[in-house]
Design goal:
The protein has 541 residues and is an all-alpha fold. The chain has 22 helices and two strands.
Length: 541
């Protein structure tokens, strides 16, 4: 049985040489990074809107309970597939340029599995909503919160189907190197939640936010239609589970599923338990610092990794390239680009941590003491940020080679290191031990991943990574000193209010950007010139 969604001529795939060029990589990275920025801004707007319209009361608590279940199920069952299994396997099928029928059959089989499995799951959640909320909610939760969350869960649960269908089609679009539509999907999702809630909250109350969640899932799926206009999609049910591509995706995802389960069941409870044992506010400081560090991580590491994953996946299965020369070159370009962006971002955020935290959070009951604690937590997290950025590319390189087992094992090793360091340092450094342990975890994961990946592919070739690290480090070090000097001067003359904090961040940050650009040009940092050339062409165009 099959149901046709759209029918047209087979899609044309991009030229391999063009897609692996530094300019193509930088262009794709820019698109994905821009989508991440827009999504995070609208996500922040969503939280501000909820707090403004409903306050920190039972309604928002019920809404948060209602979205935990579909969001967690999506992350665990579908979301983790995209980069670890879907894109690598779909990219391999897409590399067979002579005939794309196998690719369309695989995607159709995936769509069929998603429709059947998620329909059954959604019906079960609708019927068992009270029991599900009873498991998720705290035993101390008020009865009205439980009742409202149950009603809201029945509204948000159908979004699981549309989120899962989006995961499949976005994986296909990434495999076809069509980045724009999936890159801005989360922007559409968050924007729709804000719009629907603002329009309907007077009549529906907090149910408007739940409706926005459901409509947002539909909108982000519909947004992919232009990118799929020449792709023949069908929902195929017959033989879907026995398709060899589906079986391979399932086998690739098993180690990833184990890692996600380990994070949810062990790492998060361990971290929150230790943080809560150190006193009031510790978990909040961790959450605020994590929110800030996710910006450079998402804008640099995640954007570059997603941009190069389809190309790496095709190059990894290129039988004519026995020594993986093209694979190593593409990975090397991605690593150098990440290094050139993440090191100055880390240094700049480290120096400006205090004013940035004060600018964003120091309002109302958030005091200067809270700013100091959050800024210190952020700086300790930043020690591991460059390693985390490089590590994400290494993990995606394993995924591209259809090896998900090794990253899962390395993740277990780094988790053990994290727990040992946290427990050892906790008596001396309180909850700040968790930030130090997190940085150590990234260092361990990066070192082990780099060693195993290099051994598995016979070395990295001549990628000039040490030269790039050295030049970037010098430029970022000089930038940090000049930014610190500008910060010290500004703190002496500018007022300590939100307006002063904004001027301080803009002025000192501007000094940092200009100084890094000058030093990078003087040191001949080639990767910085790639980005500069692309930006100039964009502005001229």
């Amino acid at each position: 049985m099959s149901v046709t969604l759209s029918e047209s001529a087979p899609a044309e795939l991009p030229d391999r040489a063009a897609e692996a060029s530094p300019e193509s990589m930088a262009r794709a990275t820019g698109v994905i990074a821009l989508g991440n920025v827009a999504s995070r801004v609208l996500g922040l707007a969503r939280e501000i809107m909820l707090s403004t319209l409903f306050g920190a009361g039972a309604a928002v608590d019920a809404f948060n309970l209602a979205i935990i279940v579909p969001r967690s199920l999506y992350d665990l069952l579908i979301g983790g597939h995209v980069n670890s299994a879907l894109v690598p396997v779909l990219s391999e099928y897409a590399a067979a340029r002579d005939d794309q029928r196998d690719l369309w059959e695989l995607v159709s089989a995936l769509l069929g599995i998603v429709v059947v499995a998620l329909t059954v799951l959604i019906l079960a959640l609708e019927l068992l909503a009270p029991q599900v909320i009873g498991v998720v909610a705290s035993a101390d939760a008020a009865p009205q919160v439980i009742a409202q969350a149950t009603d809201l869960l029945r509204v948000t649960t159908p979004a699981l189907l549309f989120l899962s269908l989006f995961a499949v089609v976005s994986g296909l679009l990434y495999a076809l190197r069509r980045f724009t539509w999936p890159a801005f999907a989360s922007t559409a999702f968050n924007g729709t939640i804000v719009l629907v809630t603002v329009l309907l909250y007077r009549w529906l109350g907090i149910t408007a936010a739940a409706m926005g969640w459901l409509v947002g899932a539909v909108v982000q799926l519909s947004l992919q239609a232009p990118g799929l206009r020449d792709v023949p999609l069908r929902v195929r049910l017959r033989g879907a589970l026995t398709h060899p591509g589906v079986r391979r995706i399932g086998l690739l995802y098993l180690p990833v599923l184990a890692s996600l389960a380990l994070d949810v069941l062990v790492n998060r409870p361990f971290s929150y338990h230790l943080a809560s044992s150190t006193g009031e506010g510790s978990i909040s400081y961790m959450a605020w610092a994590t929110t800030l560090i996710q910006f450079p991580q998402g804008l640099v590491a995640l954007a570059i990794s997603v941009a190069i994953l389809p190309t790496l996946s095709r190059q990894a299965v290129d039988r004519a390239d026995l020594d993986l020369h093209h694979f190593k070159d593409t990975l090397g370009q991605g690593l150098r680009l990440a290094i050139v962006l993440i090191i100055p971002a880390t240094v700049g955020l480290f120096v400006l941590a205090g004013p940035i935290v004060a600018l964003i959070f120091e309002h109302g009951k958030f005091t200067a003491v809270d700013t100091a604690h959050t800024a210190l937590a952020l700086r300790l997290y930043l020690l591991g940020l460059p390693f985390a950025a490089v590590d994400l590319l290494l993990i995606f390189a394993f995924y591209a080679r259809q090896n998900t087992f090794t990253p899962a094992v390395v993740g277990l090793i780094s988790l053990i290191a994290y727990m040992v360091v946290a427990l050892y340092l906790l008596p001396w450094y309180s909850f700040f031990a968790l930030m130090i342990a997190d940085s150590v975890k990234h260092m361990v994961h990066t070192a082990v991943s780099a060693y195993l990946l290099g051994r598995g592919m016979g070395g990295y070739g001549r990628q000039r990574l040490r030269l790039t690290i050295g030049r970037t480090g010098l430029a970022a070090g000089g930038m940090g000193l000049l930014t610190w000097a500008a910060l010290a001067l500004g703190e002496h003359y500018l007022p300590g209010n939100p307006f002063g904090h904004a001027l301080l961040v803009l002025s000192a940050g501007g000094v940092g950007l200009l100084s890094f650009n000058a030093l990078a040009q003087w040191l001949g940092l080639e990767e910085w010139r790639w980005l500069g050339g692309l930006l100039r062409r964009r502005l001229r165009g």
